[in-house]
Amino acid sequence: MSLTPSGVQLIVERHRQDLQSSSFSSASDPHLQAITLRRIQNDLPHLLRALNANKGSKQYESAYAQLNSLTETVDEQSYKVQKAVEQRNAQRQVKVPQQSESVGQSTSDLGKNDNPEEDYMSLRKRLLADGTSTSLDDQNKSADQMNEYHETFQEDIMKDLSGLASALKSSASAFSSKVTEDTKVLNETSENMMKSSSLMATVGSNLNGYLNEKSGGKISLFFLIKMMVAIMIIFFIALILINFLPKM
């Protein structure tokens, strides 16, 4: 079942909310925002095809404007996120040698120290000092939140589509019942017209039979023409008399 312009508007609005939520929740990590943008970019062609299939709808113009605005926003955000990803990768490439040096130094200190538990605790504190574990935990939490949000979003879409399907089904059933009633009325009208036609034919045949019986077949077309001519002659004579008698 193809999407209607109202359904396209709903999905566009949800994608816009996804962009806003991803921009706030993943401000420290642009990779998640890049995933969201990639998912929306994959949906845009499908939405455009579904919208073009309903060009005759009244909501086509508004839905197309919203979809075009979303496309421009996605392109702009994609450019920004790509730059942010490049900067993040560059920063990580700079941090990796420093972390390796600190880890090497920590392991060397651990080999020199006589108490391994204290060395382990100091090494753990050093590794956690740069915030790597904390950012990873935040990424996992944000990824879980995004997954939960998308699951709820898909469930809402399925509910909306099922409601739309049930509404269309009920509308189709009502329309079918109306068509059935109209068909019955047309059939009854056709039967009545056939009865009237047969009745008129019967009346016409009866009149012709009555005329033939009473006139004995003497009344013909030629007789009717002669009677019409005679009536017209009498009419003109009456007019002449009416005009000349007052003068006399």
TrEMBL record:
Taxon lineage: Eukaryota, Fungi, Dikarya, Ascomycota, Saccharomycotina
Pfam families named among the record's database cross-references: Use1 (PF09753)
Cell compartments where the protein resides: Endoplasmic reticulum membrane
GO cellular component terms attached to this protein's record: endoplasmic reticulum membrane; SNARE complex
Polar residues composition bias: residue spans: 88-110
GO molecular function, one term: SNAP receptor activity
GO biological process, one term: retrograde vesicle-mediated transport, Golgi to endoplasmic reticulum
Entry's transmembrane regions: 221-245
Disordered, as annotated region: 87-117
Name of this chain's protein: t-SNARE coiled-coil homology domain-containing protein
Family membership noted in the UniProt record: Belongs to the USE1 family.
Keywords, comma-separated and alphabetical: Endoplasmic reticulum, ER-Golgi transport, Membrane, Protein transport, Transmembrane, Transmembrane helix, Transport
Species assigned in the record: Candidozyma haemuli
Superkingdom of origin: Eukaryota
Membrane topology type: Single-pass type IV membrane protein
